[in-house]
Amino acid sequence: MKLNSIGLDTEKTKALADDLNHLLANFQIYYQNLRGIHWNIKGKAFFDLHVKFEELYTDANTKVDEIAERILTLGATPLHTFEDYSAKAQVPVGKNISKDDLAVRLIVDSLSELLKIERDLLEKAGDASDEGTNSMMSDFITEQEKTVWMMKAWLSETV
After folding, report:
1. Rounded Cα–Cα distance for residues 100 and 40 (Å)
2. DSSP the chain
3. What are the 10-residue block averages of pLDDT along the chain, 159 residues in total?
4. Taking the CA of residue 35 as centre, how many other CA atoms within 13 Å lie in the half-sphere pointing to its CB?
5. pTM assigned to the model
6. Which of 85, 86, 91, 104 could bridge across to 25 with cysteines, CB 3.0–4.6 Å?
């Protein structure tokens, strides 16, 4: 087994970097969705949701940077074109969404998809003894589970 300069198996880190690029692509679509619903939201919930969507896209932007930097730390190159993001992403794309319940549903659906990817990465990072990626995924999952719960409560649904 060959180790890289941070003490991780090079084959396992390459696979993790590929999976992180998949997460990055999905996060970029999620981020764009949040920007779109922030700009286009209408209705009686406008003031509350406009602020909440800005909070979420600011957080997503930070996470995009963290994911890209983790990919670099593992010795790979982060994806950086919308062509790559569109080809790899599974998060639903929201277009021209201005209705509050559709916007919140898009967030729930997007986070549900991100959580699947992150849980898979969490398991693989554990198998590779990659505490850096493991910790990042654990933190993301904790925050996003809470956001899903809050959004589903807004929709008058249970988790």
Report:
1. 10
2. --B-TTS-BHHHHHHHHHHHHHHHHHHHHHHHHHHHHHHH--STTHHHHHHHHHHHHHHHHHHHHHHHHHHHHTT------HHHHHHH--SPPP-S--SHHHHHHHHHHHHHHHHHHHHHHHHHHHHTT-HHHHHHHHHHHHHHHHHHHHHHHHTT---
3. 92 97 98 98 97 98 98 97 96 97 98 98 97 98 98 94
4. 9
5. 0.96
6. 85
From the list 10, 18, 25, 23, the residue with the least C-alpha distance to 130 is: 10
Torsion of CA 130, 28, 145, 62, to 10 degrees: 70
